[in-house]
Amino acid sequence: MDPTPATTRIAQFDVCYTQFLDPQGRARGELPGFAADADEMRDMYRWLALTRAFDKKAVALQRTGRLGTYAACLGQEAIGVAIGKALRPEDIFMPAYREYAAQFLRGVPMQNILLYWGGDERGMAYPEGTPAHHDFPLSVPIGTHVPQAVGVAYAVRLRKQPRVVLASCGDGATSKGDFAEAVSSAKLWNLPLVFLVNNNQWAISVPRERQTGAQTLAQKAFAGGLPGEQVDGNDMIAVRHVLERAVERARAGGGPSLVEAITYRLHDHTTADDARRYRSEDEVKAAWERCPIKRLKAWLEGRSWWTDADEERLQAEGAARAEAAAQAFLTTPPEPPQAIFDHLYERLPSQFEWQREEVKSAGPKGDC
Ligand SMILES: [Mg+2]
Questions:
Q1: How far is the CA of 270 from the centre of ligand 1 (A)?
Q2: How many angstroms separate the alpha carbon of residue 207 from the centre of ligand 1?
Q3: Is the dihedral of CA 148, 151, 155, 160 positive or negative?
Q4: Which domains, ranges and CATH numbers included, belong to the chain?
Q5: Is 179 strand, coil or helix?
């Protein structure tokens, strides 16, 4: 007869979910301190709207053949704004590819994002003197930058700098080994690192429930020994509050944490995708009811902090900024073909030198 197996309860976990505003923009309780600052709240709303105007313009440029494949952030703007507000200038942001608002807030000009999706690496050369200057380029490969964030945070700790690294990734990235490795190492070294998971419910055409057997993505933190929590990623106030708390905990030596921001990808995965082929119109229609912009606007209007005239001015500003970015992008002379060799290595390996020269001598069209 087998002996009775011994069972030891190691730990138990609760996954916290934070929401301050319901989808109609009604406060569900006492709000964080920053919500009492009308100018600050209007500024966050402004960045939400400017980002949406940019996003719309980028899709239009792609649809008219003037931009390459583009990954829209429609419906997920609050996460980007929250990152931009939660980080200090000296912190380091390592983005995936939908948190444009954070990049704008950290000083990346809108046209840089267009340049990048237009195939021009100069888009990822962020202006000197801005917080973005020490941030990382967009990471399109899924999750590969997440372990790199561990390395960056390790460097920060070694140098004893009071800086925090924030790495964003999507829900699909949490199913990759890169993510598990990063989570496993982060607490081991107690790094000043925040993992932000943008859970927009879809990894291209794979829905959240077919990506993982885990009940939440936040709980993937627990195996690595770090805190994980969920937040309503469409609630501007909640997502900023939770991220600020995580960032400041990391700065104070409290170590890494994981925030799962629950949102919805209202657009196709990218402009190379057609989501109508794999999800229902009803699902998307229901998600529009949880739109972060509509929600914050309703809250601002409820406090008489926003008028129709304010909205009109903001819409005009958004359209003008997006148009200016488009014109700056469209009128930027292309790089010479050999530039494709110039941004991958600090010093070009010798086996590429002759290739570079060959491309260069083939002329601007590269027709060798
Ligand atoms: Mg996703």
A1: 11
A2: 8
A3: positive
A4: 17-334 (3.40.50.970), 336-368 (no CATH)
A5: helix
The DSSP letter of residue 16 is -
Residue-wise pLDDT tens digits, 303-336: 999 999 999 999 999 999 999 999 999 999 999 9
One-letter amino acid at 283 equals E
CA of 253 to the centre of ligand 1 (A): 30
Q: What percent of the chain has pLDDT over 90?
A: 91
Distance CA 111, CA 113 (A): 5
CA 244 to chain centre: 15
pLDDT digit string, tens, across residues 245-302 = 999 999 999 999 999 999 999 999 999 999 999 999 999 999 999 999 999 999 999 9
Q: Which residues lie closer than 8 Å to 300 by C-beta, 6 or more apart?
A: 41, 42, 45, 306
Cα–Cα dist 224/246, whole Å: 16
How many other CB atoms are found less than 10 A from the CB of residue 1? 3
In this structure, the chain runs to a length of 368
- The CA 159 to ligand 1 mean position distance, Å, reads 34
Ligand 1 center–CA 222 separation, angstroms: 21
Task: For the beta carbon of residue 12, count every other beta carbon within 10 angstroms.
Answer: 6
3-state secondary structure of 321: helix
Q: Report residue 343's pLDDT band, with 50, 70 and 90 as the boundaries.
A: confident
**Using CA of residue 179, residue 221, residue 268, residue 71, what is the dihedral sign?**
negative
Could you tell me the distance, in angstroms and rounded to a whole number, from the CA of residue 158 to the centre of ligand 1?
A: 33
Rounded to the nearest angstrom, the distance between the alpha carbon of 197 and the centre of ligand 1 is 9
User: What is the distance in A from the centroid of ligand 1 to the CA of 359?
Assistant: 38
Range with the poorest average pLDDT among 55-59, 338-342, 361-365:
361-365
Residues with CB under 5 A from ligand 1 (ion): 170-171, 200, 203
Handedness of CA 169, 172, 176, 180 (dihedral sign): positive
